[in-house]
Amino acid sequence: MSYIALYRKWRPNDFENLVGQDHISKTLSNAILSNKIAHAYLFSGPRGTGKTSTAKILAKALNCESGPTPSPCNSCTNCTKINNGSSMDVYEIDAASNRGIDEIRDLRETVKFTPVDGRYKVYIIDEVHMLTTEAFNALLKTLEEPPAHVVFILATTEAHKVPATIHSRCQRYDFRRISVVEIVERLKVVTEQMGITTTDEALKLIATHADGGLRDALSILDQCSALDNEPVDEKKVRRMLGLVGNDWIFKLVNAMAKREGYTILTILADLLAMGKEVTQILSEVTLHMRSVMLYQSVQDIDGFNLYTAEKSILEEHSKIFSYEEIVKIIKCLHAAIHEIKWSPQPRITAETAFLSICHTDGVKLEGSSLDLIKRIEKLEKNIQRLQNNITLPNKSNDTANLSSGKVYQEIDQTVKSHVPKIQEERIESVRAVKNESIQNQVKQVASPVPLNNTSHKEIWEKVLKGLMSRKKAAVHACVAQGYLQSLDSGQATIAFEAKFPKERTDKEDYRAILSDVFSEVCGMVMNVRSVLVSSSIPPDKPPHTMSRVEKAVENNEALTPEQRYVLDTAIKVFDTEAIKIPPRES
Questions:
Q1: Is 494 exposed, middle or buried (0-12, 13-18, 19+ CB in 10 A)?
Q2: Mean pLDDT of 425-441
Protein backbone atom coordinates (compact mmCIF):
# COMPACT_ATOMS: atom_id res chain seq x y z
CA MET A 1 0.00 0.00 0.00
CA SER A 2 1.27 3.48 -0.86
CA TYR A 3 2.35 5.87 1.87
CA ILE A 4 -0.40 8.00 3.42
CA ALA A 5 0.52 11.50 4.53
CA LEU A 6 0.31 12.18 8.25
CA TYR A 7 -2.45 14.77 7.95
CA ARG A 8 -4.62 12.21 6.10
CA LYS A 9 -3.71 9.31 8.35
CA TRP A 10 -4.42 11.30 11.50
CA ARG A 11 -7.61 12.99 10.33
CA PRO A 12 -10.08 12.89 13.27
CA ASN A 13 -12.76 10.18 12.93
CA ASP A 14 -15.17 11.39 15.63
CA PHE A 15 -16.00 14.48 17.66
CA GLU A 16 -13.82 13.38 20.58
CA ASN A 17 -10.66 13.52 18.44
CA LEU A 18 -11.49 16.91 16.97
CA VAL A 19 -8.72 19.17 18.30
CA GLY A 20 -9.35 22.73 19.44
CA GLN A 21 -13.03 22.96 18.40
CA ASP A 22 -14.84 21.85 21.56
CA HIS A 23 -17.57 24.47 21.15
CA ILE A 24 -18.52 22.98 17.77
CA SER A 25 -18.22 19.30 18.65
CA LYS A 26 -20.40 19.69 21.76
CA THR A 27 -23.07 21.66 19.92
CA LEU A 28 -23.32 19.19 17.06
CA SER A 29 -23.31 16.20 19.45
CA ASN A 30 -26.19 17.66 21.47
CA ALA A 31 -28.10 18.46 18.28
CA ILE A 32 -27.82 14.83 17.15
CA LEU A 33 -28.89 13.48 20.56
CA SER A 34 -31.89 15.80 20.68
CA ASN A 35 -32.78 15.10 17.02
CA LYS A 36 -32.44 18.81 16.11
CA ILE A 37 -30.56 18.31 12.90
CA ALA A 38 -30.53 21.38 10.65
CA HIS A 39 -30.93 21.11 6.91
CA ALA A 40 -27.95 23.40 6.16
CA TYR A 41 -24.70 24.26 7.97
CA LEU A 42 -22.02 26.85 7.20
CA PHE A 43 -18.54 26.02 8.51
CA SER A 44 -16.13 28.97 8.35
CA GLY A 45 -12.61 29.44 9.65
CA PRO A 46 -8.88 29.38 8.77
CA ARG A 47 -7.33 26.59 6.76
CA GLY A 48 -6.42 23.34 8.47
CA THR A 49 -8.70 23.80 11.49
CA GLY A 50 -11.05 20.86 10.82
CA LYS A 51 -13.95 22.12 8.70
CA THR A 52 -14.00 19.28 6.16
CA SER A 53 -13.16 16.70 8.84
CA THR A 54 -16.11 17.89 10.94
CA ALA A 55 -18.37 17.68 7.90
CA LYS A 56 -17.38 14.04 7.33
CA ILE A 57 -17.80 13.24 11.02
CA LEU A 58 -21.29 14.72 10.92
CA ALA A 59 -22.09 12.69 7.80
CA LYS A 60 -20.96 9.49 9.56
CA ALA A 61 -22.89 10.41 12.70
CA LEU A 62 -26.08 10.76 10.66
CA ASN A 63 -25.64 7.61 8.53
CA CYS A 64 -23.93 5.22 10.97
CA GLU A 65 -25.80 1.91 11.22
CA SER A 66 -25.98 2.38 15.00
CA GLY A 67 -27.06 6.01 14.70
CA PRO A 68 -27.83 8.78 14.41
CA THR A 69 -25.17 9.01 17.10
CA PRO A 70 -22.51 11.59 18.12
CA SER A 71 -20.00 8.72 18.29
CA PRO A 72 -19.93 6.90 14.92
CA CYS A 73 -18.46 3.42 15.06
CA ASN A 74 -16.13 3.84 12.04
CA SER A 75 -16.46 0.12 11.42
CA CYS A 76 -19.85 -0.37 9.82
CA THR A 77 -20.38 -0.35 6.08
CA ASN A 78 -21.65 3.22 5.90
CA CYS A 79 -18.83 4.62 8.05
CA THR A 80 -16.23 2.69 6.07
CA LYS A 81 -17.55 3.98 2.74
CA ILE A 82 -17.59 7.55 4.00
CA ASN A 83 -14.02 7.23 5.30
CA ASN A 84 -12.66 5.92 2.00
CA GLY A 85 -14.79 8.28 -0.11
CA SER A 86 -16.92 5.65 -1.86
CA SER A 87 -20.29 6.41 -0.26
CA MET A 88 -23.15 7.11 -2.69
CA ASP A 89 -24.91 9.27 -0.08
CA VAL A 90 -22.08 11.75 0.68
CA TYR A 91 -21.10 14.15 -2.10
CA GLU A 92 -17.94 16.24 -1.79
CA ILE A 93 -18.02 19.14 -4.23
CA ASP A 94 -15.10 21.51 -4.81
CA ALA A 95 -16.73 24.86 -5.51
CA ALA A 96 -13.48 26.22 -6.91
CA SER A 97 -13.70 23.73 -9.81
CA ASN A 98 -17.50 23.49 -10.02
CA ARG A 99 -18.52 27.06 -9.56
CA GLY A 100 -20.94 27.62 -12.42
CA ILE A 101 -24.71 27.51 -12.63
CA ASP A 102 -24.70 24.25 -14.65
CA GLU A 103 -23.11 22.29 -11.81
CA ILE A 104 -25.64 23.67 -9.32
CA ARG A 105 -28.50 22.71 -11.67
CA ASP A 106 -27.15 19.16 -11.77
CA LEU A 107 -27.00 19.16 -7.97
CA ARG A 108 -30.64 20.25 -7.78
CA GLU A 109 -31.61 17.34 -9.98
CA THR A 110 -29.90 14.74 -7.76
CA VAL A 111 -31.29 16.18 -4.52
CA LYS A 112 -34.75 14.73 -5.13
CA PHE A 113 -33.52 11.11 -5.09
CA THR A 114 -33.58 9.23 -1.79
CA PRO A 115 -30.36 7.92 -0.11
CA VAL A 116 -28.91 4.64 -1.33
CA ASP A 117 -27.46 3.19 1.91
CA GLY A 118 -27.95 5.63 4.77
CA ARG A 119 -30.64 7.88 6.20
CA TYR A 120 -29.40 11.21 4.77
CA LYS A 121 -27.83 12.48 1.60
CA VAL A 122 -25.06 14.88 2.68
CA TYR A 123 -23.70 17.48 0.27
CA ILE A 124 -20.32 18.92 1.37
CA ILE A 125 -19.49 22.00 -0.73
CA ASP A 126 -15.91 23.06 -0.01
CA GLU A 127 -14.73 26.66 -0.65
CA VAL A 128 -18.32 27.66 -1.27
CA HIS A 129 -17.39 31.36 -1.57
CA MET A 130 -15.96 30.56 -5.03
CA LEU A 131 -19.43 29.98 -6.50
CA THR A 132 -20.66 32.58 -8.97
CA THR A 133 -23.57 34.88 -8.20
CA GLU A 134 -25.79 32.96 -10.60
CA ALA A 135 -24.85 29.66 -8.92
CA PHE A 136 -25.70 31.07 -5.50
CA ASN A 137 -29.05 32.27 -6.78
CA ALA A 138 -29.79 28.86 -8.27
CA LEU A 139 -28.95 27.21 -4.93
CA LEU A 140 -31.13 29.49 -2.81
CA LYS A 141 -34.50 27.76 -3.10
CA THR A 142 -33.08 24.25 -2.73
CA LEU A 143 -30.97 25.35 0.23
CA GLU A 144 -33.96 26.92 1.96
CA GLU A 145 -36.43 24.04 1.53
CA PRO A 146 -34.53 20.83 0.71
CA PRO A 147 -36.09 17.39 1.00
CA ALA A 148 -36.18 15.91 4.49
CA HIS A 149 -33.43 13.42 3.66
CA VAL A 150 -30.88 16.07 2.51
CA VAL A 151 -28.30 17.97 4.61
CA PHE A 152 -26.07 20.69 3.12
CA ILE A 153 -22.68 21.48 4.69
CA LEU A 154 -20.94 24.54 3.21
CA ALA A 155 -17.29 25.11 4.10
CA THR A 156 -15.33 28.31 3.46
CA THR A 157 -12.25 30.19 4.60
CA GLU A 158 -13.77 33.54 3.60
CA ALA A 159 -17.25 33.75 5.06
CA HIS A 160 -17.56 37.45 4.22
CA LYS A 161 -17.73 36.52 0.52
CA VAL A 162 -20.78 34.33 1.02
CA PRO A 163 -24.01 36.25 0.25
CA ALA A 164 -26.25 37.19 3.15
CA THR A 165 -29.10 35.24 1.55
CA ILE A 166 -27.03 32.05 1.97
CA HIS A 167 -26.04 32.99 5.54
CA SER A 168 -29.66 33.37 6.57
CA ARG A 169 -30.53 29.84 5.40
CA CYS A 170 -27.71 28.11 7.32
CA GLN A 171 -26.55 27.50 10.85
CA ARG A 172 -23.11 29.05 11.01
CA TYR A 173 -20.21 27.56 12.99
CA ASP A 174 -16.95 29.49 13.26
CA PHE A 175 -13.79 27.42 13.61
CA ARG A 176 -11.02 29.09 15.56
CA ARG A 177 -7.27 28.81 15.19
CA ILE A 178 -5.85 25.97 17.24
CA SER A 179 -3.52 27.10 20.01
CA VAL A 180 0.18 26.21 20.08
CA VAL A 181 -0.29 24.11 23.22
CA GLU A 182 -3.08 22.04 21.65
CA ILE A 183 -1.05 21.48 18.48
CA VAL A 184 2.01 20.41 20.47
CA GLU A 185 -0.04 17.91 22.47
CA ARG A 186 -1.48 16.43 19.30
CA LEU A 187 1.97 16.24 17.66
CA LYS A 188 3.32 14.38 20.69
CA VAL A 189 0.60 11.75 20.30
CA VAL A 190 1.40 11.40 16.60
CA THR A 191 5.18 11.12 17.11
CA GLU A 192 4.74 8.51 19.83
CA GLN A 193 2.45 6.41 17.67
CA MET A 194 4.63 6.80 14.55
CA GLY A 195 7.95 6.28 16.36
CA ILE A 196 9.35 9.68 15.40
CA THR A 197 12.00 11.10 17.76
CA THR A 198 11.59 14.82 18.36
CA THR A 199 12.40 17.51 20.88
CA ASP A 200 9.94 19.80 22.64
CA GLU A 201 11.58 22.86 21.09
CA ALA A 202 11.12 21.40 17.60
CA LEU A 203 7.45 20.63 18.19
CA LYS A 204 6.82 24.11 19.58
CA LEU A 205 8.55 25.69 16.59
CA ILE A 206 6.41 23.59 14.22
CA ALA A 207 3.23 24.55 16.09
CA THR A 208 4.15 28.22 16.03
CA HIS A 209 4.92 28.22 12.33
CA ALA A 210 1.67 26.35 11.54
CA ASP A 211 -0.26 29.51 12.49
CA GLY A 212 -3.18 27.71 14.13
CA GLY A 213 -3.59 24.97 11.50
CA LEU A 214 -3.12 21.39 12.67
CA ARG A 215 -3.01 20.12 9.08
CA ASP A 216 -0.05 22.41 8.33
CA ALA A 217 1.70 21.26 11.50
CA LEU A 218 1.33 17.60 10.53
CA SER A 219 2.61 18.34 7.04
CA ILE A 220 5.72 20.08 8.43
CA LEU A 221 6.37 17.21 10.83
CA ASP A 222 5.97 14.71 8.00
CA GLN A 223 8.45 16.61 5.83
CA CYS A 224 11.01 16.98 8.63
CA SER A 225 10.84 13.27 9.50
CA ALA A 226 11.48 12.36 5.86
CA LEU A 227 14.57 14.59 5.59
CA ASP A 228 16.88 11.99 7.16
CA ASN A 229 16.94 9.34 9.85
CA GLU A 230 18.17 11.70 12.53
CA PRO A 231 15.86 12.95 15.32
CA VAL A 232 13.77 16.00 14.50
CA ASP A 233 15.29 18.90 16.43
CA GLU A 234 14.90 22.66 16.28
CA LYS A 235 17.85 23.09 13.93
CA LYS A 236 16.39 20.67 11.39
CA VAL A 237 12.99 22.37 11.54
CA ARG A 238 14.55 25.78 10.90
CA ARG A 239 16.52 24.41 7.97
CA MET A 240 13.39 22.74 6.65
CA LEU A 241 11.28 25.91 6.89
CA GLY A 242 14.02 28.23 5.67
CA LEU A 243 14.00 30.20 8.92
CA VAL A 244 16.86 32.51 9.80
CA GLY A 245 17.44 31.43 13.37
CA ASN A 246 17.48 33.15 16.74
CA ASP A 247 21.23 33.71 16.86
CA TRP A 248 21.30 35.66 13.60
CA ILE A 249 18.25 37.72 14.55
CA PHE A 250 19.76 38.60 17.94
CA LYS A 251 22.96 39.72 16.20
CA LEU A 252 20.94 41.96 13.88
CA VAL A 253 19.00 43.49 16.75
CA ASN A 254 22.17 44.13 18.76
CA ALA A 255 23.73 45.85 15.74
CA MET A 256 20.59 47.96 15.35
CA ALA A 257 20.82 48.98 19.01
CA LYS A 258 24.44 50.09 18.54
CA ARG A 259 23.67 51.84 15.22
CA GLU A 260 26.37 49.74 13.51
CA GLY A 261 25.42 49.93 9.85
CA TYR A 262 28.47 48.01 8.63
CA THR A 263 27.72 45.07 10.93
CA ILE A 264 24.08 44.98 9.78
CA LEU A 265 25.06 44.94 6.12
CA THR A 266 27.60 42.18 6.77
CA ILE A 267 25.06 39.99 8.58
CA LEU A 268 22.48 40.60 5.87
CA ALA A 269 24.97 39.63 3.16
CA ASP A 270 25.88 36.42 5.02
CA LEU A 271 22.22 35.43 5.40
CA LEU A 272 21.49 36.03 1.73
CA ALA A 273 24.55 34.01 0.78
CA MET A 274 23.11 31.15 2.86
CA GLY A 275 19.94 31.28 0.75
CA LYS A 276 17.66 33.02 3.24
CA GLU A 277 14.77 35.07 1.88
CA VAL A 278 14.78 38.82 2.46
CA THR A 279 11.12 38.79 3.48
CA GLN A 280 11.78 36.03 6.01
CA ILE A 281 14.64 38.00 7.57
CA LEU A 282 12.51 41.11 7.97
CA SER A 283 9.57 39.08 9.27
CA GLU A 284 11.63 37.37 11.98
CA VAL A 285 13.17 40.65 13.12
CA THR A 286 9.66 42.09 13.32
CA LEU A 287 8.42 39.11 15.34
CA HIS A 288 11.29 39.46 17.78
CA MET A 289 10.69 43.20 18.21
CA ARG A 290 7.03 42.39 18.88
CA SER A 291 8.15 39.95 21.59
CA VAL A 292 10.35 42.66 23.13
CA MET A 293 7.45 45.13 23.04
CA LEU A 294 5.09 42.67 24.77
CA TYR A 295 7.69 41.78 27.39
CA GLN A 296 8.32 45.47 28.04
CA SER A 297 4.59 46.08 28.55
CA VAL A 298 3.59 42.82 30.29
CA GLN A 299 6.21 40.92 32.24
CA ASP A 300 4.05 37.77 32.41
CA ILE A 301 4.40 36.50 28.84
CA ASP A 302 3.81 32.79 29.34
CA GLY A 303 0.42 32.94 27.62
CA PHE A 304 1.67 34.78 24.53
CA ASN A 305 2.96 33.31 21.30
CA LEU A 306 6.43 34.86 21.21
CA TYR A 307 9.35 34.55 18.81
CA THR A 308 11.62 33.49 21.65
CA ALA A 309 10.88 32.49 25.23
CA GLU A 310 14.34 33.41 26.54
CA LYS A 311 13.47 36.06 29.10
CA SER A 312 17.11 37.08 29.49
CA ILE A 313 17.26 38.15 25.83
CA LEU A 314 13.88 39.91 26.03
CA GLU A 315 14.88 41.73 29.20
CA GLU A 316 18.18 42.85 27.68
CA HIS A 317 16.59 44.22 24.53
CA SER A 318 13.68 45.81 26.39
CA LYS A 319 16.21 47.93 28.31
CA ILE A 320 18.02 48.99 25.12
CA PHE A 321 14.96 50.14 23.16
CA SER A 322 12.22 52.45 24.33
CA TYR A 323 8.60 51.70 23.52
CA GLU A 324 8.48 54.48 20.90
CA GLU A 325 11.61 53.11 19.21
CA ILE A 326 10.20 49.58 19.07
CA VAL A 327 6.94 50.80 17.52
CA LYS A 328 8.74 52.83 14.89
CA ILE A 329 11.10 49.95 14.05
CA ILE A 330 8.15 47.59 13.58
CA LYS A 331 6.39 50.13 11.35
CA CYS A 332 9.54 50.63 9.28
CA LEU A 333 10.03 46.86 8.81
CA HIS A 334 6.35 46.35 7.93
CA ALA A 335 6.61 49.06 5.28
CA ALA A 336 9.71 47.35 3.86
CA ILE A 337 7.96 43.96 3.74
CA HIS A 338 5.05 45.53 1.88
CA GLU A 339 7.38 47.33 -0.52
CA ILE A 340 9.34 44.15 -1.31
CA LYS A 341 6.24 42.71 -3.04
CA TRP A 342 6.69 45.29 -5.82
CA SER A 343 10.42 45.87 -5.62
CA PRO A 344 12.70 44.51 -8.39
CA GLN A 345 15.59 44.48 -5.88
CA PRO A 346 14.37 43.22 -2.46
CA ARG A 347 17.89 43.36 -1.02
CA ILE A 348 18.09 47.12 -1.59
CA THR A 349 14.76 47.59 0.16
CA ALA A 350 15.96 45.63 3.19
CA GLU A 351 19.28 47.49 3.33
CA THR A 352 17.46 50.83 3.13
CA ALA A 353 15.13 49.85 5.96
CA PHE A 354 17.93 48.67 8.27
CA LEU A 355 20.15 51.68 7.57
CA SER A 356 17.21 54.03 8.15
CA ILE A 357 16.76 52.45 11.57
CA CYS A 358 20.51 52.49 12.18
CA HIS A 359 20.84 56.16 11.28
CA THR A 360 20.81 58.66 14.13
CA ASP A 361 17.62 60.27 12.85
CA GLY A 362 16.16 57.01 11.65
CA VAL A 363 14.18 56.57 14.87
CA LYS A 364 12.90 59.84 16.32
CA LEU A 365 11.19 59.83 19.66
CA GLU A 366 8.30 62.10 20.46
CA GLY A 367 10.54 63.91 22.91
CA SER A 368 13.46 64.28 20.49
CA SER A 369 15.79 67.22 20.09
CA LEU A 370 13.70 68.70 17.30
CA ASP A 371 10.71 68.90 19.61
CA LEU A 372 12.95 70.40 22.29
CA ILE A 373 14.14 73.11 19.90
CA LYS A 374 10.54 73.97 19.11
CA ARG A 375 9.80 74.29 22.82
CA ILE A 376 12.81 76.54 23.34
CA GLU A 377 11.82 78.71 20.37
CA LYS A 378 8.37 79.04 21.88
CA LEU A 379 9.96 80.22 25.13
CA GLU A 380 12.00 82.76 23.18
CA LYS A 381 8.83 84.12 21.61
CA ASN A 382 7.34 84.49 25.07
CA ILE A 383 10.47 86.38 26.14
CA GLN A 384 10.13 88.70 23.16
CA ARG A 385 6.49 89.32 24.04
CA LEU A 386 7.51 90.20 27.60
CA GLN A 387 10.16 92.57 26.27
CA ASN A 388 7.58 94.45 24.23
CA ASN A 389 5.55 95.09 27.38
CA ILE A 390 8.46 96.17 29.63
CA THR A 391 8.83 99.82 30.68
CA LEU A 392 12.48 100.21 31.59
CA PRO A 393 12.27 103.16 34.05
CA ASN A 394 10.02 101.01 36.19
CA LYS A 395 11.36 97.53 35.79
CA SER A 396 8.55 95.02 36.05
CA ASN A 397 8.60 91.58 37.58
CA ASP A 398 8.95 90.14 34.07
CA THR A 399 12.43 91.59 33.76
CA ALA A 400 13.28 90.30 37.20
CA ASN A 401 12.04 86.87 36.25
CA LEU A 402 14.27 86.93 33.18
CA SER A 403 17.30 87.98 35.18
CA SER A 404 16.60 85.52 38.00
CA GLY A 405 16.80 82.59 35.61
CA LYS A 406 13.25 81.22 35.85
CA VAL A 407 13.20 80.83 32.10
CA TYR A 408 16.41 78.78 32.28
CA GLN A 409 14.85 76.55 34.94
CA GLU A 410 11.86 75.93 32.70
CA ILE A 411 14.15 75.01 29.82
CA ASP A 412 16.14 72.65 32.06
CA GLN A 413 12.93 70.94 33.19
CA THR A 414 11.84 70.56 29.57
CA VAL A 415 15.19 69.04 28.65
CA LYS A 416 15.21 66.58 31.55
CA SER A 417 11.61 65.41 31.08
CA HIS A 418 11.53 65.00 27.30
CA VAL A 419 15.01 64.03 26.13
CA PRO A 420 16.13 60.39 26.12
CA LYS A 421 19.51 59.55 27.52
CA ILE A 422 20.76 58.45 24.13
CA GLN A 423 20.56 62.03 22.82
CA GLU A 424 21.74 63.96 25.90
CA GLU A 425 25.04 65.03 24.37
CA ARG A 426 23.32 66.42 21.30
CA ILE A 427 20.75 68.27 23.36
CA GLU A 428 23.38 69.80 25.67
CA SER A 429 24.96 71.57 22.70
CA VAL A 430 21.59 72.79 21.46
CA ARG A 431 20.69 74.05 24.94
CA ALA A 432 23.99 75.90 25.28
CA VAL A 433 23.40 77.77 22.02
CA LYS A 434 19.85 78.67 22.98
CA ASN A 435 20.80 79.81 26.48
CA GLU A 436 23.50 82.05 25.07
CA SER A 437 20.94 83.66 22.77
CA ILE A 438 18.55 84.19 25.68
CA GLN A 439 21.30 85.67 27.84
CA ASN A 440 22.13 88.20 25.14
CA GLN A 441 18.49 89.25 24.98
CA VAL A 442 18.28 89.59 28.75
CA LYS A 443 21.39 91.77 28.79
CA GLN A 444 19.85 93.95 26.12
CA VAL A 445 16.71 94.41 28.23
CA ALA A 446 18.63 95.11 31.43
CA SER A 447 21.15 97.53 29.88
CA PRO A 448 19.61 99.37 26.89
CA VAL A 449 21.81 101.34 24.51
CA PRO A 450 21.27 105.11 24.94
CA LEU A 451 19.78 107.09 22.03
CA ASN A 452 22.08 109.11 19.86
CA ASN A 453 21.50 112.72 18.90
CA THR A 454 19.25 111.88 15.98
CA SER A 455 16.27 114.26 15.82
CA HIS A 456 12.69 113.13 16.23
CA LYS A 457 11.94 113.95 12.60
CA GLU A 458 14.67 111.67 11.26
CA ILE A 459 13.69 108.84 13.60
CA TRP A 460 10.05 109.20 12.58
CA GLU A 461 10.97 109.07 8.88
CA LYS A 462 13.10 105.98 9.45
CA VAL A 463 10.21 104.31 11.30
CA LEU A 464 7.81 105.02 8.42
CA LYS A 465 10.36 103.70 5.92
CA GLY A 466 10.86 100.63 8.10
CA LEU A 467 7.15 99.91 7.98
CA MET A 468 7.14 100.11 4.19
CA SER A 469 10.24 97.92 3.90
CA ARG A 470 8.46 95.29 5.97
CA LYS A 471 5.43 95.56 3.66
CA LYS A 472 3.25 96.87 6.46
CA ALA A 473 1.38 99.35 4.27
CA ALA A 474 -1.77 99.19 6.40
CA VAL A 475 0.18 100.07 9.54
CA HIS A 476 2.02 102.80 7.65
CA ALA A 477 -1.23 104.34 6.38
CA CYS A 478 -2.60 104.43 9.93
CA VAL A 479 0.37 105.75 11.92
CA ALA A 480 1.40 108.23 9.20
CA GLN A 481 -1.57 110.37 10.32
CA GLY A 482 0.22 110.99 13.61
CA TYR A 483 3.63 112.27 14.53
CA LEU A 484 6.36 111.45 17.03
CA GLN A 485 5.60 113.60 20.06
CA SER A 486 8.35 112.45 22.41
CA LEU A 487 11.11 109.88 22.61
CA ASP A 488 12.31 109.03 26.09
CA SER A 489 14.62 106.20 27.13
CA GLY A 490 12.69 103.08 26.32
CA GLN A 491 9.42 104.71 25.27
CA ALA A 492 8.11 106.44 22.14
CA THR A 493 4.91 108.52 22.20
CA ILE A 494 2.91 109.00 19.00
CA ALA A 495 0.30 111.78 18.91
CA PHE A 496 -2.86 111.67 16.78
CA GLU A 497 -5.45 114.33 16.03
CA ALA A 498 -8.10 111.75 14.98
CA LYS A 499 -9.61 109.16 17.30
CA PHE A 500 -9.70 106.19 14.91
CA PRO A 501 -5.98 105.94 14.04
CA LYS A 502 -5.11 106.45 17.70
CA GLU A 503 -7.37 103.56 18.80
CA ARG A 504 -6.15 101.36 15.96
CA THR A 505 -2.54 101.97 16.88
CA ASP A 506 -3.31 100.99 20.47
CA LYS A 507 -4.25 97.51 19.31
CA GLU A 508 -1.75 94.83 20.29
CA ASP A 509 -0.85 93.80 16.73
CA TYR A 510 0.00 97.35 15.53
CA ARG A 511 1.78 98.25 18.77
CA ALA A 512 3.94 95.10 18.55
CA ILE A 513 4.96 95.94 14.96
CA LEU A 514 5.80 99.53 15.90
CA SER A 515 7.80 98.39 18.91
CA ASP A 516 9.93 96.14 16.69
CA VAL A 517 10.56 98.95 14.17
CA PHE A 518 11.38 101.53 16.90
CA SER A 519 13.72 99.04 18.59
CA GLU A 520 15.52 98.45 15.30
CA VAL A 521 15.84 102.18 14.55
CA CYS A 522 16.83 103.25 18.07
CA GLY A 523 19.11 100.31 18.83
CA MET A 524 17.31 99.38 22.03
CA VAL A 525 14.08 97.84 23.23
CA MET A 526 11.30 100.41 22.84
CA ASN A 527 7.75 100.52 24.16
CA VAL A 528 5.18 102.45 22.11
CA ARG A 529 2.14 104.38 23.34
CA SER A 530 -0.27 106.69 21.52
CA VAL A 531 -2.10 109.82 22.69
CA LEU A 532 -4.90 112.03 21.33
CA VAL A 533 -4.15 115.76 20.97
CA SER A 534 -6.04 118.82 19.76
CA SER A 535 -6.09 119.83 16.10
CA SER A 536 -3.65 122.74 16.58
CA ILE A 537 -0.29 122.04 15.03
CA PRO A 538 2.37 121.62 17.73
CA PRO A 539 5.55 123.61 17.39
CA ASP A 540 7.75 120.53 16.88
CA LYS A 541 5.49 118.89 14.27
CA PRO A 542 6.94 119.27 10.80
CA PRO A 543 4.73 121.19 8.36
CA HIS A 544 2.52 119.10 6.21
CA THR A 545 3.80 118.48 2.75
CA MET A 546 1.85 116.88 0.00
CA SER A 547 2.93 113.26 -0.52
CA ARG A 548 3.71 111.82 -3.92
CA VAL A 549 0.39 109.97 -3.87
CA GLU A 550 -1.52 113.17 -3.05
CA LYS A 551 0.32 115.07 -5.76
CA ALA A 552 -0.46 112.38 -8.30
CA VAL A 553 -4.14 112.40 -7.36
CA GLU A 554 -4.21 116.25 -7.38
CA ASN A 555 -2.63 116.46 -10.83
CA ASN A 556 -4.77 113.58 -12.15
CA GLU A 557 -1.63 111.61 -12.99
CA ALA A 558 -1.28 107.86 -13.32
CA LEU A 559 -0.13 106.19 -10.09
CA THR A 560 2.80 103.87 -9.95
CA PRO A 561 2.14 100.31 -8.69
CA GLU A 562 3.70 101.24 -5.33
CA GLN A 563 1.56 104.40 -5.02
CA ARG A 564 -1.55 102.50 -6.05
CA TYR A 565 -0.82 99.84 -3.39
CA VAL A 566 -0.51 102.51 -0.66
CA LEU A 567 -3.70 104.25 -1.76
CA ASP A 568 -5.73 101.04 -2.01
CA THR A 569 -4.51 99.90 1.39
CA ALA A 570 -5.49 103.23 2.98
CA ILE A 571 -8.94 103.09 1.37
CA LYS A 572 -9.42 99.55 2.63
CA VAL A 573 -8.26 100.36 6.18
CA PHE A 574 -10.42 103.48 6.59
CA ASP A 575 -13.36 102.18 4.53
CA THR A 576 -13.55 105.35 2.43
CA GLU A 577 -12.72 106.65 -1.04
CA ALA A 578 -10.03 108.89 -2.51
CA ILE A 579 -10.99 112.55 -3.00
CA LYS A 580 -9.08 115.60 -4.12
CA ILE A 581 -8.12 117.97 -1.30
CA PRO A 582 -6.28 121.26 -1.43
CA PRO A 583 -2.83 121.32 0.13
CA ARG A 584 -2.57 122.60 3.70
CA GLU A 585 -0.97 125.91 4.41
CA SER A 586 2.37 125.86 6.14
A1: buried
A2: 52
